[in-house]
Specification:
single chain; 500 residues; mainly alpha; rod-shaped
Amino acid sequence: MAAVDIDVPVDTESNFCNPDDLEREAEGFKEQGNAFYSKKDYSEAFNYYTKAIDASPRNASYYGNRAATLMMLFRFREALEDSQQAVRLDDLFMKGHLREGKCHLILGNAMAASRCFQKVLELEPSNRDAQQEFKNATTLLEFERMAEFGFEKRDFRKVVYCMDRALALASACHRFKILKAECLALLGRYPEAQSVASDILRMDSTNADALYVRGLCLYYEDCIDKAVQFFVQALRMAPDHEKARLACRNAKALKAKKEEGNLAFKMNNYEAAYRLYTEALAIDPNNIKTNAKLYCNRATAGTKLKRLNQAIDDCSSAIKLDETYIKAYLRRAKCYMDTELYEEGVRDYEKVYQTEKTTEHKHLLKAAQLELKKSKRKDYYKVLGVGKNATDDEIKKAYRKRALMHHPDRHSAATTEVQKEEEKKFKEVGEAFTVLSDPKKKVRYDNGHDLEEECGGFDGGDFDANNIFRAFFGGHGGGGFPFESQNSDAGPGNFFFQFG
């Protein structure tokens, strides 16, 4: 029987697995990768180095080349894995150790980086690249140490300074970025802190530290409900995240206590509101914006309780925390006006009007300026000891009492100094009565006019306090003190009628 030719299938897999062929193919891929690397086409270079590794997975240089490419693509963690695989395959592969050290350094692991550079220097003591990188690793360790000390001392500016310099050496270190962002938040630089945290979250949406910092910024900006959501999310990603747990607890406690205070205030329970705002202020001294509002709220409760000086202090505390807090300036200005500290009140209203030029603020400023102007004149209401809403009868009664009290005849036996002082007061009482008992003059006085200045003073010939006194008491003359007792035995106490 004749032999029959049979189509035998070619064992392509056996041919493909030929070691020499694979090495040649791998070398070809490597050369192509090198060409793309030279052109700075790192994505294509990565693809060809990967093909070379697939063809020859035991070649350290292929991993080293791909690690270099990954570093150019800013994929440092993957580059670290490739460089570590390279030195596992060849412990004498100096470039592999050097690249591993650089990856560790840029990722912020200075100790591991130092070990790698020391290995390179053991292989080649004169390697300048390794020498310089070893110095960089030492510098990085020092900045870390300084930052840790600064954070303990709550010197957050120092920490930011150290982290900026550390990130110049370790630009891919999320840990340094998070620490910087946290300190920026604690310094009140919320947009910068949020920007850093958001950059990390774009690369890793599950990063618990970045979620915590985002929540912290919202918390310090008094967006407490949104902040709690981020803290809860951070704890979901990392249940043992102690900072997120503490911040979440503080946020919930602060919100609850503030709302309790607001409710008590609405129910006119001002003592309870004052106490609750005080308790809320003790929860977290670092929460500047919320605490500013709490101080202002407590000031409002304080005014209701007639604690005006404490209210002024609370408004000042609020302004110290937030210099842009208009409501605190307005409340303090009102307290200043109510305590007759008119210059301080005008200053606060001027600050408000410069910031927000509204009609209402302009009106408040004008009114305060008028009160200040009034305060610089003689206060005739005070001279008579009556309120600004005193009736005609009350003004007359007050004049009668004060005029009798300060009449010169009553103090004829006193020292010269006392006589002069009482005479001055007697004259002022007459001035006050002259103005406040005349409806037209009173209106002008109440509107802020300085009648003494307009009339050229009350020292002229047209004004005589004794004439006013005599006219008021029915024209007693002779210069003697009116209502003097005819009883020769009368003592000084009988010189006056006793008015009810």
